[in-house]
Amino acid sequence: MRLFKPRRWKRLTATLTAVVLLAAFVNGWNWLPTGSLTVQRVSSVAAALPVMAPLSGRVLFVSPHPDDETLAAGGILQDVMARGGQVYVVFLTSGDGFEWDARATIRDFTVSHADMLRLGLRRMNEARAAAQALGIPKDHLFFLGFPDQGLTAISLQNYLVPYTSSHTGVNRVPYAGTLAPGRPYTGQELDRQLAAVYDRVKPDTVLAPSVQDGHPDHRTAAYLASRLASQRGEKLYYYLVHGGLEWPLPKGRHDALPLAPPRPTSQGLTWSRYPVTDEQRARQVEAIKAYRSQLMVLGRFMWAFVRQNELLLPAPAEGSPIPPADLGK
Protein backbone atom coordinates (compact mmCIF):
# COMPACT_ATOMS: atom_id res chain seq x y z
CA MET A 1 0.00 0.00 0.00
CA ARG A 2 1.39 3.39 -1.04
CA LEU A 3 1.48 6.07 1.62
CA PHE A 4 1.05 8.92 -0.87
CA LYS A 5 -0.71 8.96 -4.18
CA PRO A 6 1.06 10.71 -7.08
CA ARG A 7 -1.36 13.67 -6.87
CA ARG A 8 -0.55 14.18 -3.18
CA TRP A 9 3.17 14.05 -3.95
CA LYS A 10 2.68 16.79 -6.54
CA ARG A 11 0.78 18.97 -4.05
CA LEU A 12 3.41 18.43 -1.39
CA THR A 13 6.22 19.22 -3.83
CA ALA A 14 4.47 22.37 -5.05
CA THR A 15 3.87 23.54 -1.47
CA LEU A 16 7.47 22.94 -0.41
CA THR A 17 8.74 24.73 -3.51
CA ALA A 18 6.52 27.74 -2.78
CA VAL A 19 7.71 27.85 0.83
CA VAL A 20 11.38 27.73 -0.20
CA LEU A 21 10.92 30.46 -2.83
CA LEU A 22 9.06 32.65 -0.33
CA ALA A 23 11.85 32.14 2.20
CA ALA A 24 14.37 33.08 -0.49
CA PHE A 25 12.40 36.26 -1.24
CA VAL A 26 12.20 37.31 2.41
CA ASN A 27 15.78 36.42 3.33
CA GLY A 28 17.51 37.45 0.11
CA TRP A 29 18.98 34.07 -0.73
CA ASN A 30 20.36 35.16 -4.08
CA TRP A 31 21.23 31.62 -5.09
CA LEU A 32 17.51 31.15 -5.73
CA PRO A 33 15.53 33.23 -8.29
CA THR A 34 13.14 34.99 -5.89
CA GLY A 35 15.94 35.83 -3.47
CA SER A 36 18.04 37.22 -6.30
CA LEU A 37 15.14 39.44 -7.39
CA THR A 38 14.83 40.84 -3.85
CA VAL A 39 18.53 41.70 -3.69
CA GLN A 40 18.46 43.26 -7.17
CA ARG A 41 15.42 45.40 -6.39
CA VAL A 42 16.82 46.64 -3.06
CA SER A 43 20.14 47.50 -4.71
CA SER A 44 18.59 49.30 -7.69
CA VAL A 45 16.09 51.34 -5.62
CA ALA A 46 18.79 52.41 -3.16
CA ALA A 47 21.22 53.34 -5.94
CA ALA A 48 18.65 55.69 -7.47
CA LEU A 49 18.19 57.66 -4.22
CA PRO A 50 20.09 60.91 -3.66
CA VAL A 51 22.92 60.89 -1.12
CA MET A 52 22.17 63.17 1.79
CA ALA A 53 24.56 65.85 2.97
CA PRO A 54 25.93 65.10 6.46
CA LEU A 55 24.09 66.47 9.50
CA SER A 56 25.82 68.58 12.13
CA GLY A 57 24.99 70.80 15.08
CA ARG A 58 22.52 69.82 17.78
CA VAL A 59 20.35 66.88 16.70
CA LEU A 60 17.35 65.59 18.66
CA PHE A 61 16.08 62.10 17.87
CA VAL A 62 12.43 61.53 18.88
CA SER A 63 12.14 57.82 19.71
CA PRO A 64 8.70 56.32 20.40
CA HIS A 65 10.32 53.20 21.90
CA PRO A 66 13.76 52.15 23.08
CA ASP A 67 15.63 50.71 20.02
CA ASP A 68 14.18 53.01 17.33
CA GLU A 69 17.21 55.31 17.61
CA THR A 70 19.64 52.43 17.06
CA LEU A 71 17.75 50.78 14.21
CA ALA A 72 16.86 53.86 12.18
CA ALA A 73 19.82 56.14 12.88
CA GLY A 74 22.60 54.33 14.73
CA GLY A 75 25.09 55.37 12.08
CA ILE A 76 23.69 58.87 11.53
CA LEU A 77 23.87 59.78 15.21
CA GLN A 78 27.49 58.61 15.39
CA ASP A 79 28.32 60.64 12.28
CA VAL A 80 26.88 63.81 13.80
CA MET A 81 29.08 63.41 16.87
CA ALA A 82 32.14 62.58 14.75
CA ARG A 83 31.65 65.94 13.00
CA GLY A 84 31.60 67.79 16.30
CA GLY A 85 27.84 67.89 16.74
CA GLN A 86 25.76 66.91 19.75
CA VAL A 87 23.12 64.18 19.82
CA TYR A 88 20.13 63.92 22.16
CA VAL A 89 17.44 61.24 22.32
CA VAL A 90 14.00 61.51 23.89
CA PHE A 91 12.21 58.19 24.50
CA LEU A 92 8.46 58.80 24.62
CA THR A 93 7.59 55.34 25.97
CA SER A 94 9.56 52.68 27.81
CA GLY A 95 8.43 49.82 25.56
CA ASP A 96 6.21 48.36 28.29
CA GLY A 97 3.41 47.17 26.01
CA PHE A 98 5.07 44.38 24.02
CA GLU A 99 3.75 41.30 25.80
CA TRP A 100 5.60 38.79 23.60
CA ASP A 101 8.81 40.48 24.70
CA ALA A 102 7.80 40.01 28.34
CA ARG A 103 6.83 36.38 27.73
CA ALA A 104 10.23 35.68 26.18
CA THR A 105 11.96 37.42 29.05
CA ILE A 106 10.19 35.62 31.90
CA ARG A 107 9.64 32.40 29.89
CA ASP A 108 5.98 32.22 30.79
CA PHE A 109 2.94 32.73 28.58
CA THR A 110 1.01 34.56 31.30
CA VAL A 111 2.29 38.04 32.10
CA SER A 112 1.12 40.41 34.83
CA HIS A 113 1.12 44.18 35.16
CA ALA A 114 4.19 43.85 37.36
CA ASP A 115 5.96 41.87 34.63
CA MET A 116 5.25 44.62 32.11
CA LEU A 117 6.55 47.30 34.48
CA ARG A 118 9.73 45.29 34.96
CA LEU A 119 10.01 45.05 31.17
CA GLY A 120 9.77 48.84 30.94
CA LEU A 121 12.64 49.24 33.41
CA ARG A 122 14.67 46.64 31.54
CA ARG A 123 14.20 48.36 28.20
CA MET A 124 15.21 51.71 29.68
CA ASN A 125 18.43 50.11 30.89
CA GLU A 126 18.95 48.50 27.49
CA ALA A 127 18.52 51.94 25.90
CA ARG A 128 21.21 53.36 28.17
CA ALA A 129 23.59 50.54 27.22
CA ALA A 130 22.83 51.02 23.52
CA ALA A 131 23.46 54.77 23.80
CA GLN A 132 26.80 54.06 25.45
CA ALA A 133 27.73 51.75 22.56
CA LEU A 134 26.90 54.54 20.11
CA GLY A 135 28.83 57.11 22.14
CA ILE A 136 25.83 59.20 23.24
CA PRO A 137 26.36 60.74 26.73
CA LYS A 138 24.02 59.59 29.49
CA ASP A 139 22.88 63.14 30.24
CA HIS A 140 21.74 63.49 26.62
CA LEU A 141 19.00 60.89 27.11
CA PHE A 142 15.47 61.82 28.19
CA PHE A 143 12.94 59.18 29.25
CA LEU A 144 9.31 60.31 29.48
CA GLY A 145 7.89 56.92 30.54
CA PHE A 146 4.55 57.15 28.73
CA PRO A 147 2.75 53.90 27.86
CA ASP A 148 3.74 51.76 24.90
CA GLN A 149 0.79 51.41 22.48
CA GLY A 150 -1.02 54.25 24.23
CA LEU A 151 0.25 57.44 22.58
CA THR A 152 -2.61 57.75 20.09
CA ALA A 153 -5.33 57.41 22.72
CA ILE A 154 -3.48 59.81 25.02
CA SER A 155 -3.19 62.44 22.31
CA LEU A 156 -6.80 62.14 21.12
CA GLN A 157 -9.26 60.73 23.68
CA ASN A 158 -7.24 61.38 26.84
CA TYR A 159 -5.83 64.85 26.35
CA LEU A 160 -7.09 65.98 29.77
CA VAL A 161 -8.32 62.78 31.48
CA PRO A 162 -5.55 60.31 32.47
CA TYR A 163 -5.20 57.20 30.33
CA THR A 164 -4.79 53.82 32.03
CA SER A 165 -2.46 51.39 30.29
CA SER A 166 -4.01 47.97 29.75
CA HIS A 167 -0.51 46.46 29.89
CA THR A 168 0.82 47.95 33.13
CA GLY A 169 -2.42 49.00 34.85
CA VAL A 170 -1.09 52.47 35.71
CA ASN A 171 -2.29 55.92 34.65
CA ARG A 172 0.81 57.97 35.45
CA VAL A 173 4.56 57.74 34.86
CA PRO A 174 5.74 54.87 37.11
CA TYR A 175 9.49 54.90 36.45
CA ALA A 176 12.35 56.51 38.33
CA GLY A 177 14.88 58.11 36.02
CA THR A 178 12.22 59.73 33.85
CA LEU A 179 11.76 63.44 33.21
CA ALA A 180 8.70 63.79 35.48
CA PRO A 181 7.88 60.68 37.56
CA GLY A 182 4.31 60.46 38.81
CA ARG A 183 2.84 62.82 36.24
CA PRO A 184 -0.48 61.69 34.65
CA TYR A 185 -0.80 59.97 31.28
CA THR A 186 -2.55 62.81 29.46
CA GLY A 187 -1.99 64.37 26.06
CA GLN A 188 -1.52 67.75 27.71
CA GLU A 189 1.27 66.36 29.91
CA LEU A 190 2.92 64.60 26.97
CA ASP A 191 2.92 67.87 24.98
CA ARG A 192 4.33 69.74 27.97
CA GLN A 193 7.15 67.29 28.58
CA LEU A 194 8.16 67.00 24.92
CA ALA A 195 8.19 70.80 24.65
CA ALA A 196 10.38 70.95 27.77
CA VAL A 197 12.90 68.65 26.08
CA TYR A 198 12.93 70.86 22.98
CA ASP A 199 13.48 73.90 25.22
CA ARG A 200 16.37 72.23 27.00
CA VAL A 201 18.09 70.83 23.90
CA LYS A 202 17.38 73.72 21.49
CA PRO A 203 18.00 71.42 18.51
CA ASP A 204 19.07 72.58 15.07
CA THR A 205 17.64 69.40 13.57
CA VAL A 206 14.92 67.00 14.71
CA LEU A 207 14.67 63.40 13.51
CA ALA A 208 11.10 62.13 13.90
CA PRO A 209 9.15 59.05 12.80
CA SER A 210 7.47 59.17 9.42
CA VAL A 211 3.70 59.57 9.31
CA GLN A 212 3.83 56.60 6.92
CA ASP A 213 5.14 54.32 9.69
CA GLY A 214 2.89 51.33 10.37
CA HIS A 215 3.03 51.56 14.18
CA PRO A 216 0.41 53.91 15.72
CA ASP A 217 2.84 55.13 18.40
CA HIS A 218 5.22 56.19 15.62
CA ARG A 219 2.53 58.02 13.65
CA THR A 220 1.39 59.91 16.74
CA ALA A 221 5.01 60.77 17.59
CA ALA A 222 5.38 62.05 14.02
CA TYR A 223 2.52 64.50 14.51
CA LEU A 224 3.75 65.69 17.91
CA ALA A 225 7.37 66.15 16.84
CA SER A 226 6.45 67.75 13.51
CA ARG A 227 4.14 70.29 15.13
CA LEU A 228 6.75 71.38 17.66
CA ALA A 229 9.55 71.56 15.10
CA SER A 230 7.46 73.64 12.69
CA GLN A 231 6.41 76.03 15.47
CA ARG A 232 10.04 76.57 16.47
CA GLY A 233 11.59 76.65 13.01
CA GLU A 234 13.84 73.60 13.48
CA LYS A 235 14.93 71.54 10.49
CA LEU A 236 12.99 68.28 10.37
CA TYR A 237 13.71 64.88 8.82
CA TYR A 238 11.66 61.70 9.02
CA TYR A 239 12.88 58.15 9.54
CA LEU A 240 11.14 54.79 9.14
CA VAL A 241 11.10 51.65 11.28
CA HIS A 242 7.80 49.88 10.52
CA GLY A 243 7.57 50.17 6.75
CA GLY A 244 4.95 47.56 6.00
CA LEU A 245 4.76 43.80 5.54
CA GLU A 246 8.23 42.23 5.68
CA TRP A 247 10.10 45.57 5.35
CA PRO A 248 13.03 45.91 5.41
CA LEU A 249 13.95 43.25 2.91
CA PRO A 250 15.83 41.03 2.94
CA LYS A 251 15.47 39.90 6.55
CA GLY A 252 18.45 39.06 8.69
CA ARG A 253 21.89 40.63 8.60
CA HIS A 254 23.21 41.70 5.19
CA ASP A 255 26.02 44.19 5.86
CA ALA A 256 27.04 44.45 2.21
CA LEU A 257 23.58 45.48 1.00
CA PRO A 258 22.09 48.98 1.00
CA LEU A 259 18.84 49.83 2.76
CA ALA A 260 16.01 50.82 0.42
CA PRO A 261 12.66 52.33 1.45
CA PRO A 262 9.43 50.45 0.69
CA ARG A 263 8.63 53.29 -1.75
CA PRO A 264 11.27 55.70 -3.11
CA THR A 265 8.96 58.68 -2.58
CA SER A 266 6.53 59.58 0.18
CA GLN A 267 4.06 62.49 0.01
CA GLY A 268 5.85 63.73 -3.09
CA LEU A 269 9.27 63.78 -1.39
CA THR A 270 12.22 61.50 -2.12
CA TRP A 271 14.03 59.48 0.53
CA SER A 272 17.77 60.08 0.83
CA ARG A 273 20.61 57.70 1.56
CA TYR A 274 22.87 58.55 4.48
CA PRO A 275 26.09 56.47 4.08
CA VAL A 276 27.35 54.48 7.08
CA THR A 277 31.02 53.58 7.59
CA ASP A 278 32.31 50.17 8.67
CA GLU A 279 33.21 51.56 12.10
CA GLN A 280 29.78 53.12 12.58
CA ARG A 281 28.12 49.89 11.51
CA ALA A 282 30.21 47.90 13.99
CA ARG A 283 29.12 50.15 16.85
CA GLN A 284 25.51 49.93 15.69
CA VAL A 285 25.81 46.15 15.94
CA GLU A 286 26.98 46.46 19.55
CA ALA A 287 24.07 48.80 20.30
CA ILE A 288 21.58 46.33 18.82
CA LYS A 289 23.08 43.60 21.01
CA ALA A 290 22.24 45.74 24.05
CA TYR A 291 18.54 45.22 23.29
CA ARG A 292 18.59 41.60 24.40
CA SER A 293 14.91 41.40 25.25
CA GLN A 294 13.96 42.59 21.76
CA LEU A 295 16.40 40.28 20.02
CA MET A 296 14.68 37.27 21.59
CA VAL A 297 11.57 38.01 19.51
CA LEU A 298 12.54 40.37 16.69
CA GLY A 299 16.13 39.43 15.94
CA ARG A 300 15.88 39.02 12.15
CA PHE A 301 13.90 42.25 11.85
CA MET A 302 16.43 44.22 13.90
CA TRP A 303 19.50 42.86 12.11
CA ALA A 304 17.97 43.88 8.76
CA PHE A 305 18.78 47.53 9.59
CA VAL A 306 22.54 46.90 9.61
CA ARG A 307 23.28 48.08 6.05
CA GLN A 308 25.53 50.31 3.98
CA ASN A 309 23.27 53.30 4.55
CA GLU A 310 20.37 54.65 6.58
CA LEU A 311 17.37 56.59 5.31
CA LEU A 312 15.96 60.05 5.95
CA LEU A 313 13.08 61.93 4.35
CA PRO A 314 13.13 65.75 4.43
CA ALA A 315 10.00 67.45 5.72
CA PRO A 316 8.29 69.68 3.15
CA ALA A 317 9.29 73.32 3.33
CA GLU A 318 6.73 75.66 4.88
CA GLY A 319 4.34 76.94 2.24
CA SER A 320 5.46 74.46 -0.40
CA PRO A 321 2.66 73.27 -2.70
CA ILE A 322 1.19 69.77 -2.35
CA PRO A 323 2.42 67.60 -5.23
CA PRO A 324 -0.44 66.71 -7.63
CA ALA A 325 0.14 62.99 -7.05
CA ASP A 326 -0.68 63.41 -3.37
CA LEU A 327 -3.90 65.40 -3.74
CA GLY A 328 -6.87 63.53 -2.32
CA LYS A 329 -4.77 61.04 -0.34
Strand content: 5-15%
Shape: globular
Order of helices and strands: HHEHEHHEHHEHEEEEHHE
Computed CA radius of gyration, to the nearest angstrom = 21 Å
Please give the CATH architecture of the largest domain: 3-Layer(aba) Sandwich
| Tally of individual domains | 2
Q: Which runs of at least 5 residues are low in confidence (pLDDT < 50)?
A: 19-26, 321-329
Number of helices: 10
Structural class: alpha/beta
Oligomer: single chain
Mean pLDDT: 89
What is the CATH T-level topology of the largest domain?
A: Rossmann fold
The neighbouring-strand order within the major sheet is 3-2-1-4-5-9-8
Q: In this structure, how is the largest beta sheet organized?
A: 7 strands, mixed
Residue share in helices?
40-55%
Distance between the termini: 61 Å
Organism: Deinococcus irradiatisoli
GO molecular function: hydrolase activity, acting on carbon-nitrogen (but not peptide) bonds, in linear amides
Pfam families: PIG-L
Protein name: PIG-L family deacetylase
Protein architecture, described:
This protein starts with 5 loop residues before the first helix and ends in a 15-residue tail after the last strand. The longest helix is centred in the N-terminal third of the chain and has 22 residues, at 6-27. It has 2 domains: 12-48, no CATH class; 53-317, Rossmann fold. The protein has helices at 6-27, 33-47, 68-82, 99-106, 113-134, 151-156, 187-201, 216-232, 278-290, 292-303, and strands at 58-63, 86-93, 141-146, 205-209, 235-239, 265-266, 269-270, 272-275, 309-314. Residues 19-26 and 321-329 have low confidence and may be disordered. Strands 3-2-1-4-5-9-8 form a 7-stranded mixed β-sheet, with helices on both faces. Helices cover 44% and strands 13% of the residues. The chain has 329 residues and is α/β, with parallel strands linked by helices. Strand 6 (265-266) and strand 7 form a beta hairpin. Helix 1 (6-27) runs parallel beside helix 2 and helix 3 (68-82) packs antiparallel against helix 9. InterPro entries: GlcNAc_PI_deacetylase-related, LmbE-like_dom_sf. This is PIG-L family deacetylase.
